[in-house]
Amino acid sequence: MSSTEPAARELQDRAVLWSVGEIRATDVVAAACEALVAGLDTPALRILAACTRAEADYDVRDLLPPALDELGLAFYSVGSVAGQEAAARALAARMLAGEMTPRELAFRIHSRFGHELPLVEGLAELDDDYDTLDYSNRTRAQVDADVTAEALRLGRHPIAPTELTDAPT
Fold it and tell me: Residue 155 has what pLDDT?
């Protein structure tokens, strides 16, 4: 893995998490800055990284697609199934990296996608299981283990062909 690959992956993950409303535009700008520091450098990436906090909410929508394109990364259109699946994979990776608990992952997936995204239906159901622990014969540790298994499955799930698009309208 080259020294720039983790920065590119992080920019891709933040882009997709932003596209589903999971993180703020300023987080995408921060990832662009981190990518520049790591050695990625394209004209559109520099412009994206130069956004101020005040500009980010307005400008990321237009600046992100060309920055990702110049780096050979996918831009998923807002609301696309492929983008939602990529966001779910990014959240699962964050849980596996210890950035959130299994309970937080299940809750965020369920809150963001409900029971409407087949790829993560199991996690939505496990969030329901957390809510009924007092009335079931399962323990929190058992549900945590099931969530972790689902997160690992997401990491192994083949990624569908990307839905590259122009900037959303």
Answer: 83
Question: Which is it for the CA torsion 4, 48, 60, 30, positive or negative?
Answer: positive
Contacts of 64 (CB under 8 A, 6+ apart): 15, 18, 28, 48, 75, 167
Confidence band of 157 (pLDDT split at 50, 70, 90): low
pTM of the model: 0.85
Listed in sequence order, the residues at least 6 apart from 121 whose beta carbon sits closer than 8 Å to its beta carbon are: 115
Six-digit token string for 98: 């210890």
Q: Which residues of 116-142 are buried (b: 16+ CB within 10 A; e: fewer)?
A: ebebbbbbbebbebbeeeeeeeeeeee
Domain positions in the chain are 5-70, 81-156
Label residue 105 exposed, middle or buried (CB < 10 Å: 0-12, 13-18, 19+): buried
